[in-house]
Amino acid sequence: MSHAWHEEMQAEIKAGARVSDRDIADKVRHAVLMQRLPPGTKLPEITLGEVFGVSRSVVRKALTRLASEHVIDQRPNQVARVRAPSIEETRETFEARRLVEGEVAAQLAGRLSPEALEALTEQARAEVEDYRRGDEPARIERSLTLHHRLAEYAPNRVLGGMLTDLVLRTSIVVALYKRAGLASCYQEGQHDRLLEHLAAGDAEAARGAVHDHLNGLEAMLDLSPREARIDLMSILGRAPERA
Amino acid sequence: MSHAWHEEMQAEIKAGARVSDRDIADKVRHAVLMQRLPPGTKLPEITLGEVFGVSRSVVRKALTRLASEHVIDQRPNQVARVRAPSIEETRETFEARRLVEGEVAAQLAGRLSPEALEALTEQARAEVEDYRRGDEPARIERSLTLHHRLAEYAPNRVLGGMLTDLVLRTSIVVALYKRAGLASCYQEGQHDRLLEHLAAGDAEAARGAVHDHLNGLEAMLDLSPREARIDLMSILGRAPERA
DNA sequence: TTTGGTATTGTTGTATACAATGTTGTCGGG
DNA sequence: CCCGACAACATTGTATACAACAATACCAAA
Questions:
Q1: B89 — contact with chain A (CB < 8 Å)?
Q2: At what angle do helices A45-52 and A21-33 cross, to 10 degrees?
Q3: Residue A39 structural domain
Q4: Which helix (H) or strand (E) holds B43?
Q5: Is 60 exceeded by the pLDDT of residue B185?
Q6: For A67-102, what is each residue's pLDDT tens digit?
Q7: Which residues form the HTH gntR-type domain (chains A, B) (predicted)?
Q8: Could you read off the pLDDT of B56-72 as tens digits, one per residue?
Q9: Fewest C-beta atoms under 10 Å: which of A149, A153, A165, B49?
Q10: Are residues B28 and B40 in the same domain?
């Protein structure tokens, strides 16, 4: 729990910027996504409060929010921990996302404004850049925002909200189960292909592109059920660090 | 805010039963579903706290939970209000539910255990009972639990969770937009038909039955965009009562 | 060494006080 | 009569104190 946050926060506090529960949730979520907070990591309210310079009230709200996003586990009278989705849940998450994102893409085909299409294309272009440059964290974030944008543009706001949630959950499990050797989960040209179908207005092709993309991503993970790696980890309660 | 809750709660308190945030959320949710708390109703923390005999801390947690379930609206520095989904959102909610529940039903076809199937059948039977008896509140609750069970039995827990959320949201808008004249939104035999297909293991028929069921339900609503009835209501901020 | 109980410590649950903010009502000017 | 400023009030936001509970460490007995 002795991350770069501390100094960062100290600075922000001096600058007079008040820290809201949303800020805290954002920072923690980001850290989980970037694997700086591995599954099972304990997140005590007091500690977080000290780090961010606020009282437990604010931290509590942030934790509640994160719990509703399935980022952490919050059980009564116990310290909140970074969630470790099981292999089964990972598969189910991918399946759910295929269903929802596929439908969103299908609905979006041919209905995107030129500006929106341009914005998405720009993201995809920047992603290639990041990949070529070997800046994986930046690339991941780029890919994330691209899919988040897609969720925002969804004509059906309810589906859009669900997709936002699923994108986050998928990203977490990708970070978790990524094959050790693999440097990146980038799939050359897949985003571009999706965007082409969206621009062309071919709904079923767009849905197919989404399915292919997600299947490819899932295939890159190590989902072999070898001896509940994660479950043990969370049960044994590893607490990697303590400031 | 002077409901039967008050006495009810008083009794429970004397009985020594502690009231948790979950209890409060359950009671409020139920009241919204039963239209005893119309959209726009203000839910001040202090008042709720007095009603349930707890402090604001607990109420806050309950309200946060309800907000994440889309039952209430919670904006900074303002009193929480019962949410009034727009007509557009209602349509979108139905569409999302068709997608998700259809898929769940399709996956469930032929995979339900005999006990589960029997439990569902029992619910459907009881629903007919309630309908014949003219006990609409009981019938609604029965229908709700039937669909909630379906969500529980879903092999894909992620989809199941999403379905639970959608069932709740759909029920709220049904209560909201039900045609004035209609006594009930019961659709004779539809649940039985779905169960038959599930038992027979015909996935696509099951999906179709779900679609028909939801289309029928949606058709029973008054979704004509005539002069934002609801929006005005929430803007005018009717606060029906005050003890 | 292992086991079981117990004291200690750490952490969350709840209540409450105060600060910050939004809402409402009142009054004066146009 | 209508409109804006402003004062009074209501309500939420935050911090903190204490109680309840869980986890841990320690120690004694087998």
A1: yes
A2: 100
A3: 3-84+226-236
A4: strand B42-43
A5: yes
A6: 999 999 999 999 999 999 999 999 999 999 999 999
A7: 18-85
A8: 999 999 999 999 999 99
A9: A149
A10: yes
